[in-house]
Write a structure and sequence with these properties.
The protein is of the alpha/beta class. It has three domains: 163 residues, no CATH class; 273 residues, no CATH class; 230 residues, Nucleotide-binding domain of ferredoxin-NADP reductase (FNR) module (Rossmann fold, 3-Layer(aba) Sandwich), CATH 3.40.50. The chain has 23 helices and 18 strands. The strands form four sheets. A seven-stranded antiparallel β-sheet has the order 8-7-13-5-6-12-9. The protein has a seven-stranded mixed β-sheet with strand order 10-11-16-15-14-17-18, sandwiched between helices. A two-stranded parallel sheet has the order 1-2. The longest helix has 41 residues. The protein is elongated and about 100 Å long. This is Ferric oxidoreductase domain-containing protein.
């Protein structure tokens, strides 16, 4: 096998400098960036790039770590003893023998290429790929005109190029194969990465559009009951796996997650070739070549998944506007895509570590900036997964959030400098990080605009009992949910809250002149519940947002000891699905989750029923002005009998559930079974960190 000399020297310089210099490209390899186009022209240039030139002297050599290399002889017997360095770019630009030899080679080998493309390439790349390289002293046409007939001498790599020569066919073939293979491999990496990114964007939109197709409504309900609504594994939430992996996906979510995992596995392992003819300079043998391509592939796919996971986690995710998927679904997908991306990044580093040890490059490269930044990104990625487990996230969300932000910055900053120090801006790998930064920046910009729209407000805090507080913010209105920033403690933190009402009630009496009508106990399948009277109510009111929240461990504990706080309001977020097509609406809520179902109760034109399980009577009493218009049944300190409630419904009906995870899981299971027999719609309102 013929040893390709120019790439060997290039690799030597890369090992010493740790950087592949070249002209900046824009886009991705194969999609805006032409890596080696035309291949024939690059092969001609590389075939003569290592010949000593008459202008060559010690001062004209490139200071690229190639001086003094003793290459020995090639397998074809070509004498390489005289090659001690590569000519400088200035020398190549001024050397008539070099330019005319390359021009004649292009004339012979690039038959069919447009002359204007050759001229364009010639001006930029015939001397070299560095932005600082001087332009050639002759144009392609002028150089070719200096060769009246075919040269009769073939120059070997070790010879001084002092006249126009024919290209060595074995060397040209070796260069051509090497360049073509390298380019095609890189294009394939980018193509597969685009498949992952586009799949993650297009498939959610495509599946959401299916709801507009004229499927029989009964079939759609059965399909949802079989594949969309049920949790993948019912015992999951109470198992040790849940403490590490997180919430169980529904079957529909699990199908998409499985697709993403299998797609990444397939594209990581698919379509690798070995090229013993002319490609041996890159790796020692075929298996090493495959491992090198695998490492590069994993790095590119990881970058594509980085873009996808940042998109999924964004509050202002464009997919939320294009689909009917909930934010909690995208947050769940964010976690699974993050696991895929981190695993790919770790494997990328480990495979290259193995290869660099085998190639005896580790000692030289491990002190270089690109290597250190790659290590920083990989270590941060390795830590972010174990430090994001639900056990930590739920017990101390603020600690989790701080670690998550710092680790994410290190991952993306490390990845950026890893690429820039290694390749500068040549091959567009940083384009994937541009996408990451653009998605992140767009989300933060929209968040800022949402905050500025409301300005700084005052939150009035009322303690309901040991478990709950009420927050009123005057002068703002909205529906859905918002994120609140309390400015005198941990101002960087923010938490989601459903808007219970856009009217703050200062005082009030019922229209019959009596105080609040006492609740009465009723029997609901053997359990006592409290049924609120339905009467009109007159109030002194003003506009504002009303929130209820349960006091948990962490930052919200401090609210119990405050009466007023300056607050920023980011929002509003969320849309409420139109359920008017269902004659009956059943809302099931637990604790302050009841505020999430209020918009559905208020908007539904048919029969709407609220079943509410509360920990304390104080919370029920505090919400009487808001729940007074509803048909409602409440149990305090006990669990709702969900089986009885849901199975007693007649005809088509919709179910909205918001509350503790166990309540939502049980509702899912019951509704999934009912949906196989009758037309039922399930909407699960949940907030996921």
């Amino acid at each position: 096998m013929y040893l390709s000399l120019a790439p060997v020297l290039w690799l030597a310089s890369l090992a010493s400098a740790g950087r592949d210099t070249g002209r900046p490209g824009y886009g991705l390899v194969g999609y805006g960036i032409e890596m080696y186009i035309p291949v024939c022209a690059y092969a001609c240039q590389y075939s003569f790039a290592t010949n000593s030139l008459e202008c060559t002297d010690e001062a004209s050599f490139d200071n690229s770590g190639m001086g003094g290399m003793h290459m020995g002889s090639s397998a074809d017997g070509i004498d390489l003893q005289n090659v001690s360095a590569m000519p400088s770019s200035t020398c190549r630009a001024e050397s008539e023998p070099f330019l005319t030899s390359v021009a004649w080679c292009i004339h012979e080998k690039c038959d069919g290429e447009l002359i204007w493309k050759i001229e364009k390439w010639w001006q930029s790349y015939v001397v070299g790929n560095s932005p600082s390289d001087p332009p050639p002293s002759l144009s392609y046409g002028a150089a070719l005109a200096l060769v009246p007939s075919q040269p009769n001498i073939t120059c070997s790599s070790g010879q001084i190029l002092n006249q126009t020569c024919l290209v060595n066919e074995a060397l040209y073939h070796s260069e051509y194969v090497s360049i073509d293979v390298n380019q095609n491999v890189e294009i394939q990496h980018e193509r597969f990465a685009l498949v992952i990114l586009l799949s993650g964007v297009v498939i959610p939109v495509g599946f959401s559009l299916l709801r507009f197709l004229p499927f029989p409504k009964r079939w759609a309900s059965a399909l949802n009951g079989r594949f969309i609504y049920p949790s993948l594994l019912r015992p999951w939430r109470d198992s040790p796996v849940a403490a590490v992996v997180g919430d169980p996906p529904t079957r529909g979510q699990a199908l998409f997650i499985a697709y993403l995992i299998l797609l990444n596995v397939f594209l990581s392992a698919f379509k690798y070739d070995t090229h013993p003819d002319g490609f041996g300079y890159w790796w020692n043998d075929g298996p090493d070549e495959i491992m090198g391509d695998l490492a590069n592939r994993l790095g590119v796919l990881s970058f594509a998944n980085f873009a996808l996971l940042v998109l999924y986690s964004s509050r202002n995710n464009v997919l939320l506007w294009l689909t009917n998927w909930q934010h909690s679904t995208f947050v769940l997908l964010h976690r699974w895509v993050a696991r895929i991306a981190v695993l790919q990044a770790i494997l990328h580093s480990l495979v290259f570590l193995r290869d660099w040890i085998q190639e005896d490059r580790l000692e030289a490269d491990q002190v270089l900036p690109y290597w250190w930044w790659g290590c920083i990104a990989t270590i941060a990625a390795s830590l972010i997964l174990p430090l994001s487990i639900p056990l930590l996230r739920q017990r101390s969300y603020e600690v989790f959030l701080g670690i998550h932000i710092v680790a994410s910055i290190l991952i993306f900053m490390g990845s950026w400098y890893h690429i820039i120090f290694r390749y500068q801006h040549q091959w567009g790998y940083e384009t994937w990080l541009y996408v990451v930064f653009a998605v992140w920046g767009f989300d933060r910009l929209v968040r800022l605009l949402r905050i500025l729209r409301n300005g700084v407000r005052t939150a009035n805090i009322t303690v309901i009992d040991n478990d709950y507080v009420k927050i009123d913010v005057k002068g703002v209105v909205g529906a859905g949910h918002v994120y609140l920033y309390f400015l005198d403690w941990r101002f960087w933190e923010n938490h989601p809250f459903s808007i219970a009402s856009s009217v703050i009630q200062q005082s009030g009496t019922y229209s019959n002149g009596k105080d609040v009508t006492p609740a009465k106990d009723v029997e609901l399948d053997g359990e006592k519940s409290t049924q609120m009277a339905v009467r009109s109510f007159d109030h002194n009111v003003e506009t504002g947002m009303v929130f209820y929240l349960r006091i948990l461990e962490g930052g919200t504990k401090a609210l119990r000891y405050k009466t007023q706080l300056p607050v920023l309001i980011e929002g509003t977020y969320g849309t409420h699905e139109d359920l008017s097509d269902y004659p009956t609406l059943v809302c099931i809520a637990g604790g302050v989750g009841v505020t999430s179902v209020f918009p559905y109760m208020r908007a539904h034109p048919g029969n709407a029923y609220l079943y509410w399980g509360s920990r304390t009577q104080s919370l029920v009493d505090s919400m009487k002005p808001l729940t007074q218009p509803f048909n409602m049944e409440v149990v305090v300190g006990r669990r709702l009998n969900l089986q009885s409630i849901l199975k007693s419904q007649h005809g088509d009906f919709a179910v909205v559930v918001s509350g503790p995870p166990s309540m939502m899981d049980e509702t899912r299971e019951i509704v999934s079974k009912i949906a196989l027999k009758k037309r039922v719609k399930l909407v699960a309102e949940s907030f996921t960190y």
